[in-house]
Amino acid sequence: MLTAPTLAQIESTVHGRIRALLAERVGEFVRLSGSEKLSATLGLSSLDLAFLVAELEAELGVDPFAKLVSITSVRSVGDLVRAYQQAFFPELQRREDDAIAAAVKRAQTRRARRESR
Amino acid sequence: MPRAGRVALVSGGSRGLGAELVSGFLERQYWVATLSRTKTPFITNMLRAGKRRNFHWSAVDGRDHEALRAFVKKVGERLGRIDVLVNNAGIATEGILPIMRTRDIVEAIDVNLTAALVLAQACSRFMLRQGSGCIVNVSSVHAIRGHAGVGVYSATKAALDGLTRSLARELGPRQIRVNSVAPGYFDSDMVSDMPEEQKQRIARRTPLGRFASIDEIANAVHFLTSDQASFITGHILVVDGGITC
């Protein structure tokens, strides 16, 4: 891909690859919402996941698991989509980090208030 | 390079067993890609203008993991597939462990083991997509029997055999076969400096009474990569004239 795809295009590509893989198994295309667990819900093995990563690298030209993201952190279809979106748009990761940092700070503030009462 | 028929990638194909394997794959009508640190007369001859359109060589240092990955990617994308990987590149690190330099240990692990892991990882991506492939790791009888003075070399080769067995299980469901060839002593650069007396002692201890020729080792690799070995995976094929039996 010469130009960076949009977030929606990345999601569509990832979903398309997963659906094609599942279609080989069950003989029909399934609908994906993003919340499905790759292993528990869809029955994909780690080798299936490796196959998907290889296919997506060929199609999108990136492998987020080479350095950016740990493959063990990917549990759901949505996690996989986000990993590829972050590979093209690193600011998404920064926003997520900022959101986590803000949540931690809020929790610490609440705890401090409780303890001071 | 145009899209190819069957494609073999051989590491360390500039001399010795690697060069023999390159020639053998070309004879078998493969497209062959190989890498080595330096260009040898063998490579120069193979690259001679127009002689071999189905031969590709790049200068790559096995310690440079990114360069290894880039080489595989280039070969896979240009030729459209990778059918065979032979992890042949290796260095013979000799000396007893207590007085060996740390950098020599690290270099042996880097070239003999880590490079093989990186190449297997990168090539398996293409093989997974194809739903077929074959990896052969060139191990050694030193992975099977202990010998003084080759502890580090033995460790790297035994690790390759461990990789062979685990990877065979991991990739088998996608019809990718993984095997090792464990050569005994054969005529190569690695034994060229060996004293004649030691060579004769080894030959006497070998049931077949001699060193192997280089093509006898290469033949084992070609067998494992052929369709005749289509149900063989996770196997360590010892080619040693019986010295370890």
Walk me through the structure.
The complex is a heterodimer of chains A (117) and B (245). With 117 residues, chain A is mainly alpha-helical. Chain A has a single domain (7-90), classed as ACP-like (Non-ribosomal Peptide Synthetase Peptidyl Carrier Protein, Chain A, Orthogonal Bundle), CATH 1.10.1200.10. Chain A is 63% helix and 0% strand. Chain A contains four helices and no strands. Chain A has helices at 7-26, 46-60, 77-88, 90-116. In chain A, helix 1 (7-26) packs across helix 2, helix 1 packs antiparallel against helix 3 and helix 3 crosses helix 4 (90-116). Chain A is elongated and about 60 Å long. Chain A starts with 6 loop residues before the first helix and ends with a helix. Chain B is of the alpha/beta class and 245 residues long. Chain B has a single domain, classed as 3-Layer(aba) Sandwich (Rossmann fold), CATH 3.40.50. In chain B, 45% of the residues lie in helices and 16% in strands. Chain B contains eight helices and seven strands. In chain B, strands 3-2-1-4-5-6-7 form a seven-stranded parallel β-sheet, sandwiched between helices. In chain B, helix 5 (151-171) links the parallel strand 5 (133-138) and strand 6 (176-183). Chain B is globular and about 50 Å long. The termini of chain B are far apart. The A-B interface holds A 45, 47, 50-51, 53-55, 57-58 and B 124-126, 128-129, 170-171, 173-174.
